[in-house]
């Protein structure tokens, strides 16, 4: 399944300097690559692991303004995030959708007047809000109170958005590639130095150890938790900016409540925890805020965090949650800008963009902080800072209203797209048809192709995952491993057995040389 998107038009193939070398395949790196490539810049993005391998797939998966940030007077950040929430709902309606949040009132946490004021501001900081505004709830009569214990009489409801976070990263990378960017996963920056007005960088394919030297006019450090390492160790650049690492962990348990609503729960320590419907059969619970002083990389939830999250929801729901209920957990390290806050929960979620030229030398832009909701605006701000060095970036911004791949759902929106796929492929069961559109939007038809039966979809790996979908992910979305496919592209890891995963692993090993070639 060769992709028309896989033709690269960067000068690197001819030995000329790139406009931008972007280090980091998370949401900020792919967002910048997309915007820059669409303005005509030549872009190479390198990611040492898989796209969204770390922080960008370990979020609470919300597109939100951040209601609690109002408590820290982050009004600009909240307003920007609320405006971006509306834009993202428009440009990626297949992987982002509205969600209603229920906030139970507990006088021990925050006074009712503070909650009402915060919710009023939340509804009015952003112009042209299309989602339903907040309202008061009586849990004695409203169905949202049914899962809650009898000590809670009232609360509030407000609107925000849900996102399939790792898919948002992949779609930005796909659109960057469609505009000419070269996206290389399993490729790390070994070192970079300034030579004759350019960055000269050594990059390494982590699969075979081969190294290549590339030249670029600008280096963009979107390394996330590795931003300081890229800055100081790999590029040998001094900076007075620092990143503060905070580990956030989540647990997934069997579904705690019926209905599409989520819950935002206030704890006695003033932190908040979300309980969110997840993958039809589960509830996602998170997050924690734990200072992280070790090296970034693969992290795991601690027993103390599991207990904290279980206690948080058990405090509110009729049905208690215990560590034995946890079917899956994940953790990530958030690279927040170090603003010297004492409490990890109070560290700003705003971003800082730092441009270093060291006396009119080749510029390096480093990104500190940020949140997934504001990634697109962050990319615009980053390119504004780089325009004096790269005139090509002076082209108008274009990403605010251009849908991401698969987002052109057509008449009837999401439901209409599901109906059309069901008519094209009546052999798909309703759940599989829904899932394909929810993951791939209008591009679900490319996965089905000319299939006329489930047998035509190829080998089955459980939960409706077929060889056709796997091949699509390999050819179009840089997937290489079982983990890539089950946890970052499809989230089918929750729905397949260990035996299913083993068969998928065998399938991929049998065709691995082809997979590696398709994304090199």
UniProtKB/TrEMBL annotation:
Keywords, sorted A to Z: FAD, Flavoprotein, Oxidoreductase
Enzyme Commission (EC) number: 1.1.5.3
GO molecular function list: glycerol-3-phosphate dehydrogenase (quinone) activity
Obligatory cofactor(s): FAD
Domain Alpha-glycerophosphate oxidase C-terminal span(s) in chain numbering: 399-498
Listed SUPFAM superfamilies: FAD-linked reductases, C-terminal domain, FAD/NAD(P)-binding domain
UniProt-listed Gene3D superfamilies: 6.10.250.1890, Alpha-glycerophosphate oxidase, cap domain (1.10.8.870), D-Amino Acid Oxidase, subunit A, domain 2 (3.30.9.10), FAD/NAD(P)-binding domain (3.50.50.60)
Catalytic activity: a quinone + sn-glycerol 3-phosphate = dihydroxyacetone phosphate + a quinol
Annotated ranges, domain FAD dependent oxidoreductase: 19-341
GO CC aspect terms: glycerol-3-phosphate dehydrogenase (FAD) complex
Keyword Flavoprotein appears in the UniProt entry: yes
GO biological process: glycerol-3-phosphate catabolic process
InterPro entries: DAO_C, DAO_C_sf, FAD-dep_OxRdtase, FAD/NAD-bd_sf, G3P_DH_FAD-dep
UniProt record similarity statement: Belongs to the FAD-dependent glycerol-3-phosphate dehydrogenase family.
Name used for this protein in its record: Glycerol-3-phosphate dehydrogenase
Naturally occurring in which organism (per UniProt): Komagataeibacter diospyri
């Amino acid at each position: 399944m060769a992709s028309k998107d896989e033709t690269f038009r960067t000068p690197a193939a001819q030995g000329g300097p790139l406009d931008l070398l972007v280090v980091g395949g998370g949401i900020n790196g792919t967002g910048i690559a997309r915007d820059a490539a669409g303005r005509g810049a030549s872009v190479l993005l390198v990611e040492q692991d898989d796209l969204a391998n770390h922080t960008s797939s370990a979020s609470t998966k919300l597109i939100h303004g951040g209601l609690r940030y109002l408590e820290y007077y982050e009004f600009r950040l909240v307003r920007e995030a609320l405006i971006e929430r509306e834009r993202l709902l428009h440009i990626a309606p297949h992987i982002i959708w509205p969600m209603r949040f229920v906030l139970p009132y507990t006088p021990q946490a925050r006074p009712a007047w503070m909650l009402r004021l915060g919710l009023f501001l939340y509804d009015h900081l952003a112009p042209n809000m299309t989602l339903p505004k907040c309202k008061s709830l009586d849990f004695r009569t409203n169905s949202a109170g049914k899962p809650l214990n009898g000590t809670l009489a009232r609360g509030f409801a407000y609107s925000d958005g849900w996102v399939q976070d790792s898919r948002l990263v992949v779609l930005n990378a796909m659109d960057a590639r469609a505009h000419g960017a070269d996206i290389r996963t399993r490729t790390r920056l070994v070192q970079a130095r300034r030579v004759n007005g350019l960055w000269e960088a050594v990059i390494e394919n982590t699969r075979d150890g081969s190294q290549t030297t590339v030249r670029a006019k600008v280096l963009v450090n979107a390394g996330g938790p590795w931003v300081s390492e890229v800055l100081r160790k790999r590029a040998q650049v001094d900076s007075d900016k620092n990143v503060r690492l905070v580990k956030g962990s989540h647990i997934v348990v069997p579904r705690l409540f019926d209905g599409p609503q989520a819950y935002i729960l206030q704890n006695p320590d003033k932190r908040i925890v979300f309980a969110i419907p997840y993958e039809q059969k589960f509830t996602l619970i998170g997050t924690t805020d734990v200072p992280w002083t070790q090296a970034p990389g693969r992290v795991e939830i601690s027993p103390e965090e599991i207990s904290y999250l279980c206690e948080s929801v058990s405090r509110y729901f009729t049905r208690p949650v215990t560590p034995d209920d946890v079917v899956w957990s994940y953790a990530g390290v958030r690279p927040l800008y170090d603003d010297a806050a004492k409490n990890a929960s109070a560290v700003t979620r705003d971003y800082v963009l730092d441009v270093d030229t060291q006396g009119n030398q080749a510029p390096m832009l480093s990104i500190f902080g940020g949140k997934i909701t504001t990634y697109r605006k962050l990319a615009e701000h980053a390119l504004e800072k780089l325009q004096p060095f790269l005139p090509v970036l002076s082209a108008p911004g274009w990403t605010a209203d251009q849908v991401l791949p698969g987002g052109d759902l057509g008449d009837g929106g999401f439901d209409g797209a599901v109906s059309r796929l069901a008519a094209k492929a009546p052999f798909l069961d309703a759940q599989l048809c829904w899932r394909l559109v929810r993951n791939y939007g209008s591009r679900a038809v490319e996965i089905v192709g000319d299939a006329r039966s489930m047998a035509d979809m190829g080998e089955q790996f459980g939960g409706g995952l077929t060889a056709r979908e796997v091949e699509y992910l390999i050819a179009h979305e840089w997937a290489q491993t079982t983990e890539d496919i089950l946890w970052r592209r499809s989230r089918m890891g929750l729905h397949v057995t260990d035996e299913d995963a083993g068969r998928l692993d065998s399938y991929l090993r049998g065709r691995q040389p082809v997979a590696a070639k398709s994304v090199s």
